[in-house]
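Anyone able to model this chain together with 2-deoxy-2-amino glucitol-6-phosphate?
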Amino acid sequence: MCGIIGYIGNQDAVPLLLEGLKNLEYRGYDSSGIGIVPDAGGSIQIQKEKGKICELESLLAGQSLPKTCLGIAHTRWATHGAPCRKNSHPHANDAYTLAVVHNGIVENYQPLREKLTREGYRFLSDTDTEVIVHLISKYLKGDLVKAVQRTIQELEGSFAIGVISSADPSQIVAARVGSPLIIGLGDGGNFIASDVPAIIRHTRKVIYLKDGEMAAIRKDGVALWTFDGKPVRHKVDVVTFQMDAAQKQGFPHFMLKEINEQPVVLEKMLAARLKKGKVVLEGLELSDAALKGITRIKIVACGTAYHAGLVGRYVIEELARLPVEVDVSSEFRYRSPIVDRKTLLVAVSQSGETADTLAAVREAKKRGARILSICNVIGSSLARESDGVLYTHAGPEIGVASTKAYTAQLMMFYLLALKLADVHGRLSAKERSRLVSDLVAVPGLCRKICRDGEAIAAVAKGHSHYGCFLYLGRNVNYPSALEGALKLKEISYIPAEGYAAGEMKHGPIALIDEYRAVVCIATQSDIYEKMISNMQEILSRKGNVIAIATAGDKEIRSHAGEVIFIPATNPLLTPLLVALPLQFLAYYIAVNRGCDVDQPRNLAKSVTVE
Ligand code: AGP
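re: yes, here you go
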């Protein structure tokens, strides 16, 4: 979603801000802007533009911006008001002496706007953000920190803000509730940013601002306070993020690179988490005895992470025989969930900043549940708010469509299920050792699928023109069907639905005709024959079947127009393999349709507002 970068120091601010914005592009945005305080004094200068950052750069190329060492910049993902120049950030007061960038949503902006309008403040945009700058302007009596502090008291909702003032060019004032914000401590200058990649080329030393904290960032230091003015002693973290991991490294898109990274990600996870067959869940922060005391598990997540949670339910119930419920976070948080001290709430999130998942966690915490997160981004809000964190260490995922983070989340669920099965003594030694060797073989099998990834381009070519896709799977691959459909729709914009194949006759069969493509996950398992029946029913209605099947299956070709084979594995583990051809298929179809694969329209990488 929206991205923030701000700089104060000895260097020329504009190139630093533009570079920061580019490194935040992956979050998803529709316009961008920059606001600077000229070194020579005078009012704040703001430039903004709709579209990609290159549009902003072209606009700037036509101007001669004054020299500056202080500025803020923003990529906006529209919530209130269309994506256009006037709604882009920064927003300024009438006199251009104050400017604000904001991530999040001011929920009470309407009454605030009405009141401020009555008081004579002029609104130029349709955004919720503009109330912030006018409130600061109203309360500014010389001390910017105090004016921001006073403003914050009136705001409801979530926000991360950066504020500059031409009357006080010695600082950037920042504050956060709900939306992430970090402070980067550089050499001869300091930064604010919504995310580490924005500043990583300049510093690895960061302070994670907590909810309810504000800061004054100066050239040579920072000061932090709570919103009620109590000074805060801050901790400086050193981030280990590798910038080259966030480059395309020869691939045409981040998504394709990240699909191909999966064998290595899974291999590394297993090497770190499965030592001589023993599951090592560093970060779990629960003794075996405490884990044994857990009587039920609730999983909350959104989107792809939710699909990983659905697979997790099958796997934990199968291996550990514990009851598991899975909820989308946005539903869980509002439905008076039943949790207690014996409930383990597992929150799954790549970014660790998803607003609904964070809210679900806070709700469950209030009701006494213990929180375990499965998270990719180190130091994220979710990680910090959980009692235990299992990091997936998949490396930065830049493509908006989640790929490697998903299979890493799946792998974590297999490991967690195995650990739970161990403490509850649910598996025989033979079953256990079989499962462990099957798990260890998975990265190699994924590698085989990646090697043949381009072959899926041919299947994609023959199906890119279809206007509608159905994905069907059963049992542990029912969530795979949901995930396959999500991948396709988010990057190719083709309507796609995932269904439990057993549900086909209860509605979706009405969609089938020669213009539909139906992806059927028909790998070898106890319910293989059931999938074959589904496929026959589709063929007899002239539907076009693409089957995902197990290598060596000789029968499958007579039930499908196209077959994508995956290597044989333990049926319980198939979601780890099935994910890859589904990702390749979605990727190549989107490329054929000329879509912006890495930054699909309207989507954001981390959904930091509700
Ligand atoms: C996945 O391809 C999506 N873009 C999206 O569904 C994502 O998984 C969801 O927003 C959850 O994000 P999180 O894992 O960062 O919480």
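Residues 429-451 form the longest helix (23 residues).
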